Amino acid sequence: MTDPFLEKAAEVLELDVADDETVLRDCEEWDSLTALSLVAMIDRHYRVTISADDLKNSATVGDLRRLVEARKGP
Q1: In terms of pTM, does the model score above 0.85?
Q2: Residues 6 or more apart from 30 whose CB is under 8 A from it?
Q3: Which residue from 22, 25, 31, 50 could staple onto 18, CB 3.0 to 4.6 Å apart?
Q4: Phi and psi of 66, rounded to 5°?
Q5: CB-based contact 3:10 (threshold 8 Å)
Q6: Contact 27, 40 (CB under 8 A)
Q7: What are the φ/ψ torsions at residue 17 (nearest 5 degrees)?
Q8: Is residue 10 within 8 Å of residue 38, measured between CB atoms?
Q9: Residue 10 CB: number of other CB atoms within 10 A?
Q10: Residue 72 has what pLDDT?
Q11: Which of 44, 42, 43, 49 is nearest to 65 (CA)?
Q12: pLDDT value of position 74
């Protein structure tokens, strides 16, 4: 079974596959537009707001996932 968050993150990062250990800044396509696209994807699909500092403090896709899960509540 595939994970929807990982699928959406991989799409934004233009990767075939992303996992919790995928380092955001190591992605070939990582730039400010990709960062904004991740923020927009999280807002649109999970109704969670991610700040620039949140993104700066998230090294991996897993860090972002944990942040989203913590903020979206039950």
Answers
A1: yes
A2: 13, 24
A3: 22
A4: -65, -40
A5: no
A6: no
A7: -145, 140
A8: no
A9: 19
A10: 87
A11: 42
A12: 67
- The token pair at 18 is 């992303």
> Is residue 23 helix, strand or coil?
strand
CB 60 within 8 A of CB 27: no
Amino acid at 5: F
What is the C-alpha to C-alpha distance for residues 51 and 35, in angstroms, rounded to an integer? 11
Angle at 9 between CA 30 and CA 45, to 5 degrees: 125
Domains of the chain: 4-72 (1.10.1200.10)
Entry field: residues in the chain = 74
Beta-carbon-side half-sphere exposure of residue 59 (alpha carbons within 13 Å)? 1
